[in-house]
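Weekly modeling sync, notes
Attendees: S.R. (lead), two postdocs, one rotation student

Agenda item 3: backlog of single-chain predictions. S.R. asked that every request posted to the team notebook include the full sequence so nobody has to chase files. The rotation student volunteered to paste the first one in as an example of the format we agreed on. Action items at the bottom.

Example entry:
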Amino acid sequence: MNCRDRGSISVMVAVTAVSLVAVVGLVLDCGGRLRAVERADALAQEAARAGGQQLDIDALRAGQGYRFDRAAAERTATAYLRSHGVKGAIGFPRQGDLKTFSVTVETDYPTALLGLVGITTLPVQGHGKATLVHGITEGTTG
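Predicted structure, as returned to the notebook:
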């Protein structure tokens, strides 16, 4: 064995080990972020569902049709998100349209291994929407 080759395997093992830890960190943290996105989507959808149950009863009784009670829908959705420890934006996508209600949840996923390279959190966003559907058997898309 040549003296110049001594320790070359040690360097190769060190480089390979660091690369392997980086790949495992990416897989672990990206998989964790995907689970966090699924949770954010579920929370946003449930908040939209809860807010979407708040009908404007006075408008309904006055013959103005089905629509959301905007203030009650926003309060209910916000309370649902708060009870699960997340913050979100509640809105009605089109001005004056009180038949579609949306919720966007924004949070962060704390990384496990990527923190070793300075990435301590990954952003996560979830979306949910409720649409009033009355008197038909299928919803509309769009």
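Discussion: group reviewed the output briefly. The longest strand covers residues 100-110.
Action items: rotation student to repeat for the remaining queue; S.R. to check formatting next week.
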